[in-house]
Amino acid sequence: MSYSLKSGYIFFLLLLLSSCAKKEDYSAYFSGEVINPRTRYVLFSKGNKVIDTLKLDENNRFYIKFDSLTPGLYSFKHDPDYQYVYFDKNDSLMVTVNTADFDRSVTFSGRGDRKNNFMMELYMLNEIDRHKAYDIYNYEYPRFSQSIDSAYALRKSFYDKNKKDIHWSNDFDFYAKSRLDLNYFSKKEYYPYVHARRSGEDITPSLPKDYYNYRKQLDVNNTKLIGFSPYMRYLNARLNNMAITRHFTMNSVAEDALETNIDKLNIADSLFSNKDVKNEALNTVAFNYLLEDQNIANNQKFLNRYMQLSTDKSKDNEIRKIGQAIKKLKVGSKLPLIHLVGIDGKEFNISEGITKETVIFFWTSCARAHIERITQKVSELKKLHPGIDFIAVNVDSDDEWKKTMSLYKFNDALQLRSTNFDALRKKWVITKINRTIILNPDGTIKNAFTNLLDRDFDRSLDKLNRDFQK
């Protein structure tokens, strides 16, 4: 056999063998159990895109095999709570959650469980840090710096030990290290403007010249960070810091929410070069602002600037949807119809069932402290305003609702349940459980964006009654 013929034969043989070789396997398994479920499904997502809807069986469990799942960070959501799960090649994971205390209950088992349980432990430690951090923003800089540096050193030691023991991948390490660092970075961003708000003191001139050097460690245009909650929290803190401190004077901090938030949009436009990251940043600013400032004229000015800067023109853009939904909740309008049922299972038509000034509030069995606070507050308000009706709308499953109803006395409000939380969220823009809506006696909207637990809520009721009687 000639050399050229032999070479060709060997090449052909190698080609044949390679074509017959088994393709690389990227299959993965994900299963779980949801204790006290609120809905009958779990959403499995990558970034902001839902990959699959995992239905719960009669035992409140789900199971799915992915024939090909790219290694990386994913999330699972059981409305309204969510958490992250990281899959390496061929991981097989099971998660157990209890909606009564979602985050604390998350436990992973199976192949790939150690790194995911570490991430949950780090998350909970960071949450403890965040709740303890309330007072540190009052400190003078040396004490503040010592406090956050000490906390970071403890978390870094915990991270280093687990990284050595578990031997996780470089890609997982990117998210683990980001979660560690971003918690620390966020505190540094919060400090100047929170300290200013509380003390009236502009601390910025006395900060070390290298105070913001940590910003150089973070590539803010890294698309892997899109949708990652520690990054979004940091991003919000940084934009707040840059915008609010710009408006700060020695006597006051600017309270013009419209001006400050448009400034945040402009800062985001200049700070981010990657269009996807920029759109995510713009969405974060817009989402937070639109749910706080419900002045319709302000909203339109803000949305006009948002539309100029955002390149996300898709019909699925959540900010555009929220903007449209808010327009339908303006004063004098009727509430969009939502399917609501009473304890007897009968439907309640919100557009026809209102005959008095009515306060609508929301609750869930997952927030027991909130239940107790609103129950007490409604009882007090009912005595002060006997001519006003109160409607409580629950967002849990039917079984969970009725079980919780048996534990509390809800005598001062008509009890209803929303059968479709997604519709409630979209049409009434319910993204916070403490939202409250006030209706006139004819069923029209008097105020669609208030809070029953606000200190001045009682006085606003008095004013609303007087205004309507005029």
From TrEMBL:
Domain Thioredoxin intervals: 329-470
PROSITE patterns: PROKAR_LIPOPROTEIN, THIOREDOXIN_2
InterPro entries xref list: Thioredoxin-like_fold, Thioredoxin-like_sf, Thioredoxin_domain
Tree of life domain: Bacteria
SUPFAM superfamilies for the chain: Thioredoxin-like
Signal peptide, first to last residue: none
Protein name: Thioredoxin domain-containing protein
